Amino acid sequence: MPHILQLDASARPGFAGKDLHGSHSRNLSQRFVSQWLAQRPQDTTTYRDIGQHPPACISHDWIAASFTPEAQREPWMHETLAESNQLADELIAADILVIGVPLYNFGMPATLKAWIDQIVRPGKTVDIDTSKPEDPYTPLLADRPRHAVILTARGGVGFGPGGELEALNHLEPALITALGFLGITQIHQIAIEGQEHGGEVLANSVAQANAAVDALVQQLQQTPQTARLAETA
């Protein structure tokens, strides 16, 4: 059966419209997962709140351990990579990755960047063959179809594809690049804009994003991939 990995990266712990200074991106990710499970309660989920519980930043020891072949790692190396192994295994197990994330200062929150650094792992999520300098990388998560759903909240307006501020948005492009590097290429993007404007601008954007989330859930549940996973459950 399909398995969902839900990540929330907002520094705001609550939900917009419910909690003071609540998060719009958390609303979107929660809506996606709850709508999915309402139709397919037998499917499974893993939830990780990296906004409130950030992954560790990589260090010199992490790099040394990561680039040492597993059979040659010393005990301290295994300990250093324990969190990375857990995060990478969660991603490997997922059929659908749902990321609720705000746009902070033109890019992703540091917590999400830390997560990316932890899950891009030689020999685990990507193979590196230095004997082929023209094409040394093999994405290991291309072994089966996986979807990534990027649910974004932005303070301003016009940061989406075709918008006048598109060139200033380094969130979705960076995420798409990193996930594609690992083999996740089926990407879906939905965004709320206008949080700083408020009023009708924000309300209309929220309504459009909610409708888009609902439509995406229906679309993905009807894909042949989901049907095959359900048949094998």
Short characterization:
With 233 residues, the protein is of the alpha/beta class. The chain has helices spanning 24-39, 60-66, 75-80, 82-93, 110-119, 172-182, 199-221, 224-231; strands at 3-8, 44-49, 96-102, 126-128, 137-139, 147-153, 186-192. It has a single domain (3-222), classed as 3-Layer(aba) Sandwich (Rossmann fold), CATH 3.40.50.
Topology:
Elements (H helix, E strand, L loop, with lengths): L2 E6 L15 H16 L4 E6 L10 H7 L8 H6 L1 H12 L2 E7 L7 H10 L6 E3 L8 E3 L7 E7 L18 H11 L3 E7 L6 H23 L2 H8 L2
Helix pairs in contact: 1-7
Protein architecture, described:
The protein is α/β, with parallel strands linked by helices and 233 residues long. The protein has one domain (3-222): Flavodoxin domain (Rossmann fold, 3-Layer(aba) Sandwich). It has helices at residues 24-39, 60-66, 75-80, 82-93, 110-119, 172-182, 199-221, 224-231; strands at 3-8, 44-49, 96-102, 126-128, 137-139, 147-153, 186-192. A five-stranded parallel β-sheet has the order 2-1-3-6-7, with helices on both faces. Strands 4-5 form a two-stranded antiparallel ribbon. α1 runs parallel beside α7 (199-221). It starts with a strand and ends with a helix. The model has no long low-confidence stretch (mean pLDDT 94).
Structural class: alpha/beta
Q: What composes the largest sheet?
A: 5 strands, parallel
CATH class group: Alpha Beta
Q: What helical percentage do the residues reach?
A: 25-40%
Which term fits the overall shape?
Answer: globular
In the CATH hierarchy, the architecture is: 3-Layer(aba) Sandwich
Euclidean distance between termini CA atoms: 5 Å
Q: What is the succession of H and E elements? A: EHEHHHEHEEEHEHH
Compute the number of structural domains: 1
**Count of helical stretches:** 8
Can you say what the CATH homologous superfamily is?
Answer: Flavodoxin domain
Determine the mean pLDDT.
94
- The total count of strands amounts to 7
Strand content: 15-25%
C-alpha Rg (nearest Å): 18 Å
Strand arrangement in the largest pleated sheet: 2-1-3-6-7
Oligomer: single chain
